[in-house]
């Protein structure tokens, strides 16, 4: 655990600069607008350790998979979000000497991410050759004009004599990814003008699309342009001013970024770039920022969770929502959540099962249903790739990928690619979750029924029948707990497979005759699916009364995490992989994940026995872990445990709990704060009959919390304070809900 930023309700701010924490600072001051994003690296060159990262939504490259021993069915490439052409680059000379905070003497440092307005500000006073210059940097990515990046740098001469300032503003295509296999560059420059670059991703051997990006910069400044320069990969402009003592000057840089995802030809792409550059030139900085800020205000008005009495909890919650909204707000149905969003290179892919299992439950409650429907359509549109993935494994139906941009699996770890197949069940569960929450059956009875059918065909082929036990089993899998690889009969996987088949059969009874013909499911198939449902093996220990995580799990040396020396944690940074696999320690919720998914299907005693057994063995070294345990702890009235786990999930990155935030934020786990409060502390449930219910409690050190929830055309405001819980219908038709099992009418 490490905290480098101050605790404030709306800001991520520090007045300290420590070079060894530079990457951590960059991750936590990242910006994004759904279309593009960037780490909080400095605009100017920094000669010490840094991770420069700019990313464009949906722009990626298929890097050749490197393995020592190729296996049949292995993904041919590892898809990765690549570093975009650096369009925010700005260097500065003070009396001819380059500004470099890795070398310079400076004071009064501050960096501040204002989450309310999505504005990053950095300031300091640099001392060079006896002169003092104050720099103030401002940066935002517009959510009003998605293609627009805005930077503003203000200088003030604090010296007793005049100082010469040069600002060199550039667009630089000479960029790379740290995780590139062969240190290669991914961009070929097609065209350079005095203020723009057009670049295209280099050719690949896998038949995936190449992407073109175009970037045009313009400047508003009191400085004088004195030079411009072009190389094979960079265009730059130099601006000059001589500041007298006490004088201020500023330079504003605006960049329009367009990509081939939105245009059919390079000529259309560049024409749009020029048009948008011209349009924004007619507006002042204040006008551009005001339009951006107003949209963020609307988002916060709908979704902000207000916590009184605990500023740490408040900051963590808002940081979670800010990270989610910066990554995805449903504006582009072709996009999805990446686990690192726009904050780093790790995990490379566009989407994991995190979307269905963690993001959809949150977005159902804070956005219009069409946003979640778009996430479901994302999978439907990638069915062709899922067929390929199943075929690669020699199986029927569709296997949705663990990591993908286009539906084709592009993850390069065998125990994940081949074995973490519970993801198929998570996608089926998301369809059910959407339908139950919204009451909208239009998806499940059409596109959704196709997805469910093909997933069910996969499960029916992936199971095998044990003659000895007279039951169906699934061997050779990895469950959500990735500290257990290649196990037999993972309870969560088997449970989801059985449930998916059962749910699909129910849906098939409701589809139209026309849709049934399209699905072309025989009666023999249905009978086989029902037989699997009836005879699926689910590991269970009678003595302990728990669902066994997988066959053989209880044969391990079952010692709680509390008995481990603190210097051994996190395990993944201190133990060999072999030692981890032989241990009983759980990375994240596995059995507990399944119980959370289907809370109404388990008794109080079942939930208690399983939580009490598995939680002491869980190290929570997955960012997705703490929230699920927090919800179950709240359900069991383990309120102190629920709050402690909320604090871990809400401040996972802010306090660097797992010592791995320096390479990027854990975006999809930022759903955890909302899940912990709404599903956990407020006890929100939507039951199969469509009833919305709550069982709220107030953490002891909080004075109150409140949130708004979107539900079936209504907006409901929930406040929980020391006098009890209060519910208000903000908009929409009257609604009956249950609070602590009592009926409450909202009018």
Q: Biggest sheet, in brief?
A: 9 strands, antiparallel
Number of strands: 31
Strand residue content: 15-25%
Shape: globular
- The whole-angstrom Rg is 27 Å
Distance from first to last alpha carbon = 46 Å
Measured as a percent range, the helix fraction is: 25-40%
Mean pLDDT over the full residue set: 95
Strand order of the largest sheet: 1-9-10-11-12-19-16-15-14
Enumerate the spans where pLDDT stays under 50 for 5 or more consecutive residues.
none
* Category by helix and strand content: alpha+beta
Helical segment count: 19
GO molecular function: hydrolase activity
Domain Glycoside hydrolase family 65 C-terminal: 684-746
Protein name: Glycoside hydrolase family 65 protein
Domain Glycoside hydrolase family 65 central catalytic: 318-674
Walkthrough of the structure:
With 747 residues, the protein is of the alpha+beta class. Helix content is 30%, strand content 24%. The strands form eight sheets. A nine-stranded antiparallel β-sheet has the order 1-9-10-11-12-19-16-15-14. The mean pLDDT is 95. Residues 684-746 form the Glycoside hydrolase family 65 C-terminal domain. Belongs to the glycosyl hydrolase 65 family. Keywords: Hydrolase. GO terms for molecular function: hydrolase activity.
List the keywords.
single chain; 747 residues; alpha+beta; 9-stranded antiparallel sheet; 5-stranded antiparallel sheet; 19 helices; 31 strands; Glyco_hydro_65_N; Glycoside hydrolase family 65 protein
């Amino acid at each position: 655990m490490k905290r480098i930023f101050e605790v404030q309700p709306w800001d991520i701010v520090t007045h300290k600069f420590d070079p060894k924490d530079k990457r951590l600072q960059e991750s936590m001051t990242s910006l994004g607008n759904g279309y593009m994003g960037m780490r909080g690296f400095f605009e100017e060159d920094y000669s010490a350790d840094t991770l420069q990262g700019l990313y464009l939504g949906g722009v990626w490259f298929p890097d050749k998979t490197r393995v020592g021993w190729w296996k049949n069915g292995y993904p041919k490439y590892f898809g990765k979000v690549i570093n975009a052409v650096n369009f925010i680059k700005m260097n500065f000379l003070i009396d001819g000497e380059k500004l470099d905070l890795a070398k310079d003497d400076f004071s009064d440092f501050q960096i501040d991410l204002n989450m309310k307005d999505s504005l990053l500000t950095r300031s300091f006073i640099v001392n060079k050759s006896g002169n003092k210059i104050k720099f103030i940097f401002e940066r935002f990515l517009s959510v009003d004009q998605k293609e627009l990046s805005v930077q503003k740098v203000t200088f003030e001469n604090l010296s007793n004599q005049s100082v010469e300032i040069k600002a060199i503003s550039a667009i630089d295509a000479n960029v790379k990814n740290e995780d590139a296999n062969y240190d290669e560059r991914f961009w070929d420059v097609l065209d350079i003008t005095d203020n723009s670059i057009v670049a295209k991703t280099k050719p690949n051997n896998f038949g995936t699309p190449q992407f073109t990006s175009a970037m045009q910069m313009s400047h508003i400044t009191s400085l004088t342009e004195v030079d411009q320069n072009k190389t094979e990969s960079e265009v730059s402009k130099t601006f000059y001013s001589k500041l007298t003592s006490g004088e201020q000057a500023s330079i504003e840089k605006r960049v329009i970024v367009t990509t081939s995802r939105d245009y059919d030809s390079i000529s259309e792409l560049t024409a749009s770039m020029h048009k948008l550059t011209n349009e924004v030139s007619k507006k002042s900085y204040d006008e551009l920022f005001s339009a951006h800020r107003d949209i963020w205000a609307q988002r916060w008005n709908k979704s902000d969770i207000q916590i009184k009495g605990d500023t740490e909890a408040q900051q963590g919650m808002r940081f979670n929502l800010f990270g989610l909204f910066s990554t995805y707000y449903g504006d582009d149905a072709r996009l999805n959540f990446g686990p690192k969003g726009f904050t780093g290179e790790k995990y490379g892919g566009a989407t994991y099962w995190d979307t269905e299992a963690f993001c959809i439950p949150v977005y159902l409650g804070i956005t219009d249903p069409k946003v979640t429907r778009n996430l479901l359509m994302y999978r439907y549109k990638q069915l062709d790739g899922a067929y390929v993935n199943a075929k690669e494994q020699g199986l029927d139906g569709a296997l949705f990928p663990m990591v993908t941009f286009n539906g084709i699996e592009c993850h390069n770890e065998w125990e994940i690619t081949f074995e973490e197949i519970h993801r198929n069940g998570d996608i089926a569960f998301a369809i059910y979750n959407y339908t139950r929450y919204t009451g909208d059956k239009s998806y499940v009875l059409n596109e959704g029924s196709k997805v469910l059918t093909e997933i069910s065909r996969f499960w029916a082929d992936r199971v095998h029948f044990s003659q000895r036990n007279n039951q169906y089993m699934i061997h050779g899998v990895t469950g959500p707990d990735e500290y257990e690889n290649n196990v037999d009969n993972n309870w969560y996987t088997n449970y989801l497979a059985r449930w998916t088949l059962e749910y699909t059969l129910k849906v098939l009874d409701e589809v139209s005759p026309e849709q049934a013909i399209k699905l072309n499911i025989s009666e023999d198939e249905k009978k086989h699916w029902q037989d699997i449902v009836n005879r699926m093996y689910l590991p269970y220990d009678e003595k302990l009364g728990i669902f066994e995580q997988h066959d053989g799990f209880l044969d391990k040396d079952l010692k709680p995490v509390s008995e481990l020396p603190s210097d051994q944690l996190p395990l993944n940074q201190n133990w060999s992989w072999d030692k981890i696999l032989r241990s009983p320690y759980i990375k994240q919720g596995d059995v507990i994940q399944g119980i959370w998914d289907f809370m109404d299907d388990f008794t109080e005693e079942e939930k208690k026995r399983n939580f009490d057994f598995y939680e002491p063995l869980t190290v929570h070294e997955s960012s997705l872990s703490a929230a699920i345990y927090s919800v179950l702890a709240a359900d069991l009235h383990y309120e102190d445990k629920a709050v402690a786990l909320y604090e871990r999930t809400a401040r996972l990155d802010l306090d660097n709990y797992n010592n791995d935030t320096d390479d990027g934020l854990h975006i999809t786990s930022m759903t955890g704060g909302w899940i912990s409060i709404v599903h956990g502390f407020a006890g929100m449930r939507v039951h199969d009959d469509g009833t919305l219910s709550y069982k709220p409690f107030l953490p002891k050190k909080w004075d109150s919390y409140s949130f708004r929830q979107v539900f079936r055309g209504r907006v409901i405001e929930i406040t929980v304070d020391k006098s009890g819980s209060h519910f208000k219908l903000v908009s929409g038709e009257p609604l009956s809900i249950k609070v602590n099992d009592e009926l409450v009418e909202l009018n």
